[in-house]
Amino acid sequence: MLFDVDGTIAETERHGHLPAFNRALAEAGLPWHWSRDDYRRLLKTTGGYERLLHYAEEAGDDPDSMAELLRHVHQAKNRHYVELLAAGAVPPRAGLRELILALAANDIAWGVVSTTCRANWRALWTHTLMPLQLPPPAVVVCGEDVSAKKPDPEAYLIALQRLDQPSSRCCVIEDSRNGMLAARLAGLEVAIVRSEFFADERFDQARVVVDELTALVPAVERV
After folding, report:
1. Structurally, how many domains does the chain consist of?
2. 91: nearest Cα among 212, 173, 174
């Protein structure tokens, strides 16, 4: 079972990334402050740095001339994100612990496939997941491992290669349409758990759509 991270394992976008972006923007002296509606729109652009460039263009600024500044803003945002996690601001999604323990009880490994940076994943693992006493993931694919982000299937293809498993023996839990498309292009079946910012997207290629991970536990327990 391969899990996306942001929005799937935890509502990191709302409780972690958005406030971290606003802290970094204020720290840099930029007159930008993103609301939840702003961020919902900006999430259609994959990648935090890419999101900053896109917003600069929306705001009427020259993204090319701001590229270096925005690179530093993105680095600062990641630092603030880790600080928020360390403070306990980002809890796991409901049912995550029960689902992973049910997988382990049925000898089903779990893994992580995300295009977030590795430092962000490590912070989530250290501060949010390790206290749950979960078995470690069998594979972790992060943004540094890929040249193209979701909806490109590269991240999932790398995970399958590292696991030495065909797509028929793995499935995916995602929360976004881009994630669903990436998994399907890699030949993987997908379960969608709705998240705050992507709940209204179209999930026509998903096998099942649920509101919380808790709803997937009985299916694993019946395996």
Report:
1. 2
2. 212
